[in-house]
Amino acid sequence: MDDRRRRFQRIYDDNYELILGYALRRTATADDAADVVADTFLTAWRRLDDVPDGERARLWLYGTARKLLGNHYRSLHRQRRLTEQLRTDLPRLVGHTTSATGDGPDADSISAAFARLTGQDRDLLILVGWEDLDPGQIAEVLGCTRATARVRLHRARKRFTQALEKEGLQRNGAGGHEVSGWATARPGQEETR
User: Fold this and answer.
1) What's the pLDDT tens digit per position in 29-62?
2) What is the predicted pLDDT for the residue at 155?
3) Domain 95-184 adopts which CATH fold?
């Protein structure tokens, strides 16, 4: 093992549990904490020449974890804002919306459907719905061709439609790519439209 790897291994061994505890106390789930810790040590590996020696290495790792936690919280905040925006914009985006009770789609169902998606699907839908990017711009962000971006976006929209349906939001209308409306219905409940 070369000196660089030995140094990183020593930093990791000396600080992993401390950084994990720090992250666990500041995140809602163990998975979120694990992501922060993994990113912290990935950053340390990439910037190993910037990591100070001895006790100061731990402080550097805490500072890095703190910045990553800030990014994590901003991401959660953006996701909540997007969900709220989706709740507001869904009726306008998909046309006339009704429900069995006449109130429109259940916001919790929309949030749950969005949460069912993979991170990649959510990111694509955020890029098109929140950031208002077209497939060409999305292709540039993703580093792929426009055709690939279109296919990925089409599939993400399809999976979101399926997730909405699993949450009791059912598609009404002529079919095809045009969505004329959504209705909420509990399983086994007839739609009143």
Assistant:
1) 899 899 999 999 999 999 999 999 988 999 999 9
2) 93
3) Arc Repressor Mutant, subunit A (1.10.10)
CATH tag for 3-73 (out of 2.40.128, 3.40.1710, 1.10.1740, 1.25.40):
1.10.1740
CB atoms inside a 10 Å sphere around CB 99? 19
**Could you tell me which residue, 156 or 103, shows the higher pLDDT?**
156
For the chain, the domains span 3-73, 95-184
Q: 152: helix, coil or strand?
A: helix
Q: Report the alpha-carbon angle 9-10-12, nearest 5.
A: 65
- Give this prediction's pTM: 0.47
Residue 172 host element (H or E):
strand 169-172
Q: How many residues does the chain have?
A: 193
